[in-house]
Amino acid sequence: MFKYKVLAVLIVIIYFLQPFFFSNGGIGADSLSYFGIAVDLPHPETNLFPLGYPVMLRMIYNLVSDWFWTARILSLLFMITILSFSYFKKFYFRETVLLFTGKTCFFVFTQAMSEEPFIFFLYFLFYFLHQLFSEEKKDYKNAIYASVMLICMFLVRYSGIYIYASILVFFFLMFFKLKNKLYFKPFVLFVLLSGLGIGSYLLFNYLHFGSFTGENLRGGPVGRTSIFILRSILGVTNVTDPFIGIKPASNSFLSIGFQFFLLLLDVCLFIYMLKFFKKAKNDSNYYFHIFLWTTTLIYSIALFASGWYQQIEEMNVRMLAAANFAIFFSFLILYFKYSISDKLMWRIGCFFFVFLTVYNLKDPSNFLKNKNKIEPQMLSFVGKKYLFNDEKNKVTTTNYHIPVINKSFNYIHTNKQIGSIKENIIGTLNPKIKWLMQDTIKDKSKVLYTSEINFSAR
């Protein structure tokens, strides 16, 4: 057990520090939107995103007065809470630590995004439902706690409604098998309370903003091109892979071919996981594992389908974080229960933890250094209301050399582009400034152009 404690500490340290070496500091377009909502509190102007994550950000910001540090501290609290709870409650500590070596946690907890609290509350939803299913008694307490977790998930991401849909599907599929269980009535209470909480927030949005989830603020679907659909399908199948989730930006033949290679690997992994799932048929936690697998399936399908009706990005590690988290957790629990030794899983987890760390730092930057260069310049642009990246034509290309085959190739990283880096830092320093997709503002005096910011300034 000692080695898992050491690994847990290393995970927290590395996840916390990594964004300092990212060119964007783990800050993306959605991060800036959440910062913008947070800075408007207690009078939010939009319901494009739910208020849960902005409220958390604002609480920390009131203490540290810096949005980047706010995001890092909040992430740190999420990680420490999950790992400490798992250890002291003896709730699958080894499995939880190895969960953090996977691609989902690695990606989520190094970025400033709502997936962090979403996964945080999802973990505790799993805990309370596990306790509910494990004990043959009328456990109303855990049912109430579970409903609070699910409502909190919806309060930080609207996709929490897909988790609720998963629960409804699970409930109807298992109805006749669960109705004779002592925890059947508590589970019904959980379903009703969760639905009431989610419905109440939707009603609040409609009465206050005039829409349920900001649907009037989203653009139309852009994912109906054949290449987008193909990449999204490949993204959905990749949900079974705990560790590898590389999605090249290029649509070249080599890129698509590589993703098809991953598809073959994903199918093999799914078959391997399925063997362990079948072993759980006589397990006391069988229904808990059915719930986890149902969550993975329904969440993935629902999210993929939603791309036909609203403007969302293609299916990737971020979009399918909850689904991958659920199936990986189920697999780890069953693996440790039905395997003689933990050596294989331990070695694989450690290998990919090191691999993902090195991969993320293959071309390190110094976010705080860049932030410190831009911050004093912002004093000259206090009256600016809009931000536009007019440096999209300045393309930064990274060269990689593969020593084994002595070949080199160039790759354009979205987050390494000079204009994009400036956008993220400026938005972090001034969340009230609205970034523009197109330079459509007639009064140019209100627009801050990224070219006006000098990176060589000291």
UniProtKB/TrEMBL annotation:
The keyword Transmembrane helix applies. The keyword tRNA processing does not apply. The chain crosses the membrane at residues 67-88, 100-124, 144-175, 187-207, 253-274, 286-305, 317-338. It comes from the Bacteria. Coiled coil: none annotated. Keywords: Membrane, Transmembrane, Transmembrane helix. This is Glycosyltransferase RgtA/B/C/D-like domain-containing protein.
